[in-house]
Specification:
This protein is of the alpha/beta class. Helix content is about 35%, strand content about 20%. It is built from four helices and eight strands; from the N terminus they run βββαβαβαββαβ. The chain has helices at about 45-55, 80-90, 110-135, 175-200; strands spanning about 10, 25, 30-40, 70, 95-105, 145, 155, 210-215. The protein has a six-stranded mixed beta sheet, with helices on both faces. Strands 6-7 form a two-stranded antiparallel ribbon. Helix 3 runs antiparallel to helix 4 (about 175-200). The two termini are about 20 Å apart. Mean pLDDT is about 80; it is low at about 1-20.
Length: about 220
Amino acid sequence: ALQEKEKPTATGGAGPLGGGTGQEEREMSHVIRHDVLPLKVDKRLYLSDISEEVFHEDRAEGGSYHGSFQWVDSIEPFACVDDARAYLEKHFQGYNDGAVMFYDVNDLIDSKRVIQLKENLTALENRLKMFERDHNPRNRKSDSVTCQKCRSRISLSYYRGDHSCPVCGGELYAQSTVSKIASYKARIKETEGKISEERKKRAKKAPIKWLAKYEYHV
């Protein structure tokens, strides 16, 4: 295996990749792979590795890689892996495969500002978790809960855990509880955005790597 090319992990469908590295998405018989590679990767060896992988995984479809792969070195490296992934998703759709460069800000030592933001993020996540636990209908003393929409009294024996009414799909939480949860989630998202922006400010101090994407049938 190539250095820094992580072992792929199957996921349950299209969606954000954690860190954007070494993961795969399976949609029926369609595989989409993303790999983070060192800047000085042996490109011919990497494409050879892809061909070998497809040969073993794609026998039902003929066992050969289409070979349409472009190393894009004519644009500046992206500020982070998420920006690189967004570019690949927009410009390299279908079996048009390729790789772009990005600054791997995750390799940087966090600044004091980022460390503080991460601590704030952890505190918010913990407070949300505790709030949801404290307001979970199952933790009530009564054995039922009233739907805020249809006003049905729902026995907790039918409670599915997603705080939606099994009768009408309405909200089982009080509106004040729903608003508080939404507020926590908004603050968490805002803090995550601040962390990302702070890291982008120092992007050019980070090592440059490739983000590669390729697809095939299985």
